[in-house]
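# step 3/5: fold
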Amino acid sequence: MNFIRAIRDKLAQVDEVVPILVFFELVYLGVGQLIIWAFLPVDKPSVALGFAIGVGFAMMSSIQNAWVLSRALSSGKSRKASSAKMVIWLIVRIACIGGIVVLAVITDFCSPVAILIGVLSIQIGVYFEPWARKRRQKKENREDK
Protein backbone atom coordinates (compact mmCIF):
# COMPACT_ATOMS: atom_id res chain seq x y z
CA MET A 1 0.00 0.00 0.00
CA ASN A 2 2.89 2.36 0.59
CA PHE A 3 3.88 1.95 -3.05
CA ILE A 4 0.40 2.99 -4.23
CA ARG A 5 0.33 5.89 -1.78
CA ALA A 6 3.75 7.05 -3.03
CA ILE A 7 2.51 7.02 -6.63
CA ARG A 8 -0.64 8.92 -5.65
CA ASP A 9 1.39 11.54 -3.78
CA LYS A 10 3.79 11.92 -6.72
CA LEU A 11 0.86 12.44 -9.10
CA ALA A 12 -0.73 14.92 -6.69
CA GLN A 13 2.46 16.98 -6.82
CA VAL A 14 1.76 17.59 -10.50
CA ASP A 15 -1.87 18.53 -9.86
CA GLU A 16 -4.40 17.49 -7.22
CA VAL A 17 -6.83 16.28 -9.90
CA VAL A 18 -4.43 13.84 -11.60
CA PRO A 19 -4.80 10.99 -9.06
CA ILE A 20 -8.58 11.15 -9.49
CA LEU A 21 -8.30 11.06 -13.28
CA VAL A 22 -5.87 8.15 -13.22
CA PHE A 23 -8.01 6.24 -10.70
CA PHE A 24 -11.14 6.46 -12.86
CA GLU A 25 -9.15 5.58 -15.97
CA LEU A 26 -7.91 2.45 -14.17
CA VAL A 27 -11.50 1.60 -13.19
CA TYR A 28 -12.48 2.03 -16.86
CA LEU A 29 -9.62 -0.29 -17.84
CA GLY A 30 -10.70 -2.95 -15.34
CA VAL A 31 -14.36 -2.85 -16.31
CA GLY A 32 -13.50 -2.79 -20.01
CA GLN A 33 -11.16 -5.77 -19.71
CA LEU A 34 -13.82 -7.68 -17.78
CA ILE A 35 -16.38 -6.98 -20.50
CA ILE A 36 -13.94 -7.93 -23.27
CA TRP A 37 -12.87 -11.22 -21.69
CA ALA A 38 -16.30 -12.26 -20.35
CA PHE A 39 -18.87 -11.07 -22.85
CA LEU A 40 -17.58 -10.02 -26.28
CA PRO A 41 -17.42 -12.58 -29.09
CA VAL A 42 -14.24 -11.12 -30.62
CA ASP A 43 -10.54 -11.91 -30.88
CA LYS A 44 -10.08 -11.31 -27.16
CA PRO A 45 -6.27 -10.90 -26.95
CA SER A 46 -6.19 -8.44 -29.84
CA VAL A 47 -9.05 -6.32 -28.52
CA ALA A 48 -7.82 -6.47 -24.91
CA LEU A 49 -4.33 -5.35 -25.94
CA GLY A 50 -5.68 -2.49 -28.05
CA PHE A 51 -7.96 -1.37 -25.24
CA ALA A 52 -5.09 -1.46 -22.72
CA ILE A 53 -2.86 0.54 -25.09
CA GLY A 54 -5.60 3.16 -25.50
CA VAL A 55 -6.25 3.50 -21.78
CA GLY A 56 -2.51 3.63 -21.04
CA PHE A 57 -2.11 6.39 -23.60
CA ALA A 58 -5.03 8.27 -22.03
CA MET A 59 -3.42 7.99 -18.58
CA MET A 60 -0.12 9.30 -19.88
CA SER A 61 -1.98 12.11 -21.66
CA SER A 62 -3.78 13.11 -18.45
CA ILE A 63 -0.52 13.25 -16.51
CA GLN A 64 1.37 15.02 -19.29
CA ASN A 65 -1.43 17.55 -19.84
CA ALA A 66 -1.54 18.45 -16.15
CA TRP A 67 2.25 18.70 -16.06
CA VAL A 68 2.39 21.02 -19.09
CA LEU A 69 -0.45 23.13 -17.70
CA SER A 70 1.15 23.51 -14.29
CA ARG A 71 4.53 24.41 -15.81
CA ALA A 72 2.94 26.86 -18.23
CA LEU A 73 0.98 28.61 -15.49
CA SER A 74 3.84 28.69 -13.00
CA SER A 75 6.39 30.15 -15.38
CA GLY A 76 6.60 33.86 -15.94
CA LYS A 77 5.96 33.50 -19.66
CA SER A 78 3.08 35.10 -21.46
CA ARG A 79 -0.24 33.41 -22.00
CA LYS A 80 0.53 33.21 -25.71
CA ALA A 81 3.64 31.14 -25.09
CA SER A 82 1.78 28.91 -22.62
CA SER A 83 -1.08 28.39 -25.06
CA ALA A 84 1.33 27.64 -27.89
CA LYS A 85 3.10 25.03 -25.74
CA MET A 86 -0.16 23.31 -24.92
CA VAL A 87 -1.25 23.27 -28.57
CA ILE A 88 2.11 21.82 -29.64
CA TRP A 89 1.86 19.03 -27.04
CA LEU A 90 -1.72 18.32 -28.12
CA ILE A 91 -0.60 17.97 -31.74
CA VAL A 92 2.23 15.66 -30.64
CA ARG A 93 -0.21 13.47 -28.68
CA ILE A 94 -2.64 13.30 -31.60
CA ALA A 95 0.22 12.37 -33.94
CA CYS A 96 1.40 9.65 -31.52
CA ILE A 97 -2.00 8.02 -31.16
CA GLY A 98 -2.55 8.35 -34.90
CA GLY A 99 0.78 6.60 -35.50
CA ILE A 100 -0.13 3.81 -33.09
CA VAL A 101 -3.51 3.31 -34.79
CA VAL A 102 -1.91 3.25 -38.26
CA LEU A 103 0.68 0.75 -37.01
CA ALA A 104 -2.13 -1.40 -35.60
CA VAL A 105 -3.96 -1.31 -38.95
CA ILE A 106 -0.84 -2.18 -40.95
CA THR A 107 0.57 -4.91 -38.70
CA ASP A 108 -2.72 -6.18 -37.19
CA PHE A 109 -1.08 -6.67 -33.76
CA CYS A 110 -4.15 -5.29 -31.98
CA SER A 111 -7.54 -3.78 -32.67
CA PRO A 112 -7.35 -0.11 -33.75
CA VAL A 113 -10.99 0.42 -32.76
CA ALA A 114 -10.23 -0.85 -29.25
CA ILE A 115 -7.32 1.62 -29.05
CA LEU A 116 -9.64 4.51 -29.84
CA ILE A 117 -12.27 3.28 -27.37
CA GLY A 118 -9.53 3.01 -24.74
CA VAL A 119 -8.42 6.58 -25.41
CA LEU A 120 -11.94 7.71 -24.55
CA SER A 121 -11.19 6.81 -20.93
CA ILE A 122 -9.71 10.26 -20.55
CA GLN A 123 -13.30 11.53 -20.53
CA ILE A 124 -14.37 9.19 -17.72
CA GLY A 125 -12.02 10.85 -15.25
CA VAL A 126 -13.14 14.31 -16.34
CA TYR A 127 -16.80 13.41 -15.78
CA PHE A 128 -16.24 11.95 -12.31
CA GLU A 129 -13.73 14.54 -11.05
CA PRO A 130 -16.35 17.09 -9.81
CA TRP A 131 -18.15 14.32 -7.90
CA ALA A 132 -14.88 13.19 -6.30
CA ARG A 133 -13.95 16.77 -5.42
CA LYS A 134 -17.31 17.37 -3.69
CA ARG A 135 -16.95 14.12 -1.77
CA ARG A 136 -13.42 15.04 -0.65
CA GLN A 137 -14.58 18.51 0.46
CA LYS A 138 -17.44 17.00 2.49
CA LYS A 139 -14.99 14.63 4.16
CA GLU A 140 -12.62 17.50 4.99
CA ASN A 141 -15.50 19.56 6.38
CA ARG A 142 -16.51 16.66 8.66
CA GLU A 143 -12.93 16.28 9.90
CA ASP A 144 -12.66 20.01 10.66
CA LYS A 145 -15.72 19.97 12.91
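# step 4/5: annotate
Residues 21 and 126 are 7 Å apart (CA to CA).
# step 5/5: archive (pending)
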